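Minimal example, chain plus glycyl-adenosine-5'-phosphate.
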Amino acid sequence: MRKLEDCEQPTRTVTFFKRKLQDVIHKISTSDAAAGTVTSVDRTVCMAKTVRLMAEPKENVVMEKIVSLCKRRGFIYQSSEIYGGINGFWDYGPLGVELKRNVKELWWNVMTHQRDDVAGLDATIIMHPQIWKASGHVDTFTDPMIDCKTCKGRFRADQTSEIPCPQKPSKMVSECHGEKTAPRAFNLMFQTHVGPVQDDSTIAYLRPETAQAIFAQFKNVLETSRQKVPFGIAQIGKAFRNEVTPRNFTFRSREFEQMELEFFIKPDEVVEAISGRIEGPAPAGSSPEPQPGWGWEAWHKYWVEERIRFYEGIGLSRATLEEYWQKPEELAHYARATVDILFKFPFGTQELEGIAARSDFDLSQHARCSGKSMGVFDDELRGAWSKLEESKKKELGERYYKARLNYLTRTGMDAAEAEKQARGDSENLAKGQYIPHVIEPSAGVDRLILALICNAYSEDQMPDEKGKLETRVVLKFHPRVAPIKVGVMPLLKNKPELVRKALEVRDLLRPHMNVFYDDAGAIGRRYRRQDEAGTPFCVTIDFETLEGIKEGPLSGRKDTVTVRYRDDGRQDRMAITELVDFLVPKIR
Ligand code: GAP
């Protein structure tokens, strides 16, 4: 769940256009009034002037270069650019879409196909509005806003000491003498209406996270996948948040994708009843196999390690990442621990993914609000419970009772009713019944794409065809995520025999990987184009391919090509027949 603390602070260099945009946002978001004062055309024109500059952090030279490269090479464009763009929305171009697909496929593969204990889900974006009531989003998914009656600006209440006053930019909003309203909660969910009638009864929301669908479908997946706790449900999909200040390129967008796993585990009391004790977490850096005696702490630590290993496997070294363990006072009331995995972006070290131990809060909420049971039956627990000594039964039962009572009391339930229900829940342990707890690794696809691009971006010196050093821009993606795996090139475009052979090589590689065929321009220029696209290998078909190698140990051998490596420009000679076996292990 989003927390206020996790919102980054704006920089002090606010341009005229940023200030203008705040004005426009204010006019637009004071919705009813906006209908009279700002027409849809006005909005488009104002947005056209302001959004482009807002989106790009001019104060960060590296980010400026990255944003420009992303557009120039077709990774990321501003959404609706021909109409001036729309703030917080981004489109992925030909290279961006490949990068994104690779990342999502790798996540899906690691989280589901490579494991026996995770099943997948693909749920709708619009769901029953009660889901968002039960999850707490309708009431608490808000940012605090204040309005200034003097300048008509609207600001995040927790950022007023960081934002210059639109009328007196030498002062921050908190220091200026404008007349401010008290902070008001601004809900970040996008609203829509389902069906032709637009009244309160038809309000629905675009989901602000994919997680809730997993909780809502928990019972269906459990019954149809033949899984048993501990097991997980994974989902990748779009989420929408009407962020007050979308910023840092795609980092904080209004439409984005998430990759979320809800991993359901037994409550510690159940583990202890079955295994006799709770095993603690494995030492940091180790990659242990899950154990039946693991309590929530061991599972939580396990998922933190698994997720860091995933990032390492796609090229983000541990040195580029940080673990931030939220302090007890920062945790949501239902969370037992939350770790944010941070990446060192050029604009600061920021969250890539959060891994939260969320207790049984979500399933309990949906059980309470829907009236449907979210409990599971565990034969092993029933068997183990009957063999426990009475004192142990009492101790575990009391611990479970207290945890349930704590949850039920917080819901505002009448004290006597809460006690009765908590007692009933605790007695259900003897029947093998409990509500699972959950560990939630929740990652943002778009943030990860941005992290991968920032991590890959480099400039170095490389000799051109005449041996003169020139600066080159290169994206050093891990081959697993690179949008194009190999560029295939005939040395010359006007030699049909070279072109024919190059097309044969392209067709040989295509079933195994994304190949880009390029015969336009000098070979050095073609290499540079692939460097900028992050293509790890180029294969060149030259006259020696056709006529045989002129000298050296392979002298006279035909059907060989040069394989050129992106990162250092090194070249190897290799038989065409060896290419697939050579390249495939490097890109998988
Ligand atoms: N279900 C838990 C949840 O949604 P979150 O910390 O709000 O937790 C999880 O979001 C991840 O989703 C974040 O770590 C981030 O990678 C991504 N994310 C959240 N808001 C985003 C936004 N406005 N733009 C891009 N990515 C976002």
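The chain has 20 helices and 23 strands. Residues 1-58 have pLDDT under 50 and may be disordered.
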